[in-house]
């Protein structure tokens, strides 16, 4: 049996904190869905999730950051994820005619690998090779 790699532990923590973030933002989405159209509900809950993701990734998942680079690049990752997520949500509801309340969960599941890889790139300092 091979020992668990540090990278595997980070990914598990990423999944756990992602689950917490998903539950929190999904509850917000459902609450807003009673008041607003699904795209607005998704957008507001998504922006809230960006702030929560920063703190969870910074202090629990990667436990490091690259200073201003991390602060500036994380929103860009989430803007890209948001654009793809809105497309997934729209396709889910309008093309596939599936329930609105499940749309953000589908978008989240589809985008997990994309988000993990890019988040790791901006939070974890590259290892330098010793001469």
From TrEMBL:
It is a multi-pass membrane protein. InterPro entries: GtrA_CellWall_Glycosyl, GtrA_DPMS_TM. The keyword Metal-binding does not apply. Keywords: Membrane, Transmembrane, Transmembrane helix. The chain crosses the membrane at residues 12-32, 38-60, 72-95, 101-123. Its main location: membrane. It is found in: Membrane. It comes from the Bacteria. Residues 13-122 form the GtrA/DPMS transmembrane domain. The keyword DNA repair does not apply. One of its GO terms (cellular component) is plasma membrane. This is Membrane protein. It comes from Pseudomonas frederiksbergensis. The lineage of its organism: Bacteria, Pseudomonadati, Pseudomonadota, Gammaproteobacteria, Pseudomonadales.
